């Protein structure tokens, strides 16, 4: 039996691409690559996710964590970044390269994506689609069922593994043909087009770019921490992150590097902080002042609080007043 491996984002186009090919009696396995920038939370609930996708769309999906190679690519994507810190072309190249590598594992004869020519300004132009194929080593083995008829026949069509006549000729930015096809497949509960990738979100992307500019090696949990909480670059190089609620405080405790300080007020409700690169005493004082500032408000007479710094079994305390907003405004990341 012929098997195809699909790059699965979870968006409507990737769902439809899988269904169009599966309609021809081909076994389609969807691979959803995840990194902290997209889809990472699914790793904690892989089975539930797979069941949901099967139930809603009739598609079998597996997750693959691509974090480490993605971190390396993001530092210097050969085709550059989009509007924010999104390396869309190199992202697709990397995903396809990995998918190609997985073909042997899943006995797949060809690859599928839900790309539609002309749909996205940067990554889905005709010439860009060719570059993505070429640089991922997937020329000829990548079938784009939603726009196949606008492209040269691929290996799967030439070899008669799929019937080209039953593939589609979508192009451009309009969503109507996709919505109509979804209707034909009886798909109603599908995700609306929306981001889903933090590298395209300007605030998050700026913070990630800042991290890449400051640290020569990327730590997975640092990236996960970058995506929530309040962040400050302290005047002497320290990086302080404060939780904004109990859930974020708990996550910071869970994800912090053992070499970093955990910073908090042992006697007063307030944020959990993680302090990275705390080499300078002024940064410790600033971190303490910020923890008190974002702690539970106290009347002026008792505004100062004890702040504990804990790292690798060692503890020290500082007594600090809340830091004035004017002082730390420019430190926000
Ligand atoms: S938006 Fe994000 S996930 Fe999508 S191609 Fe661009 S970088 Fe990759």
Compact description:
The chain is of the alpha/beta class. Helices cover 36% and strands 16% of the residues. It has 2 domains: 3-197, HUPs (Rossmann fold, 3-Layer(aba) Sandwich), CATH 3.40.50; 228-331, no CATH class.
Spell out which ligands are present: iron/sulfur cluster
CATH class of the largest domain reads Alpha Beta
Number of domains: 2
Estimate percent helicity: 25-40%
Q: Please count the beta strands (DSSP E, at least 2 residues each).
A: 11
**Oligomeric state of shown chains:** single chain
CATH level 3 topology of the largest domain? Rossmann fold
Strand content: 15-25%
Listing every helix as H and every strand as E from the N terminus to the C terminus, the arrangement reads EHEHEHHEHEHHHHEEHEEHEEH
If helices are DSSP runs of H or I spanning 4 or more residues, what is the number of helices? 12
Strand order of the largest sheet: 6-7-9-8-10-11
- The coarse silhouette is elongated
Output the CATH homologous superfamily of the largest domain.
HUPs
């Amino acid at each position: 039996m012929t098997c195809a491996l699909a790059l699965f984002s979870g968006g409507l186009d990737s769902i439809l691409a899988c269904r169009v090919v599966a309609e021809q009696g081909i076994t389609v396995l969807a691979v959803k690559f995840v990194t902290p920038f997209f889809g990472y939370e699914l790793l904690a609930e892989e089975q539930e996710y797979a069941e949901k996708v099967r139930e809603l769309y009739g598609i079998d999906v597996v997750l693959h964590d691509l974090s480490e190679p993605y971190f390396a690519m993001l530092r210097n994507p050969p085709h550059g970044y989009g509007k924010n810190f999104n390396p869309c072309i190199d992202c697709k190249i990397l995903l396809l390269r990995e998918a190609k590598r997985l073909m042997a594992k899943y006995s797949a004869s060809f690859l599928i994506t839900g790309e539609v020519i002309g749909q996205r300004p940067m990554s889905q132009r005709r010439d860009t689609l060719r570059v993505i194929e070429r640089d991922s080593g997937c020329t000829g083995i990548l079938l784009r069922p939603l726009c196949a008829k606008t492209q040269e026949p691929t290996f799967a069509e030439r070899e008669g593994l799929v019937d080209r006549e039953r593939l589609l000729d979508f192009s451009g930015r309009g969503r109507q043909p996709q919505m109509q096809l979804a209707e034909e497949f009886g798909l109603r509960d599908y995700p609306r087009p929306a981001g889903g990738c933090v590298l395209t979100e300007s605030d998050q992307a700026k913070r990630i770019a800042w991290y890449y500019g400051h640290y020569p090696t990327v730590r997975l949990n640092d990236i996960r921490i970058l995506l929530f909480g309040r962040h400050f670059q302290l005047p002497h190089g320290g990086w302080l992150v404060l939780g904004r609620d109990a859930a974020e405080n708990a996550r910071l405790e869970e994800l912090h590097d053992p070499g970093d300080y955990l910073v908090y007020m042992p006697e007063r409700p307030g944020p959990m902080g993680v302090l990275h690169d705390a080499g300078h005493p002024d940064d410790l004082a600033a971190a303490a002042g910020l923890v008190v500032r974002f702690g539970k408000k106290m009347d002026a007479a008792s505004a100062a609080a004890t702040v504990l710094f804990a790292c690798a079994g060692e503890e020290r305390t500082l007594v600090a007043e809340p830091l004035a907003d004017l002082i730390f405004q420019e430190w926000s990341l």
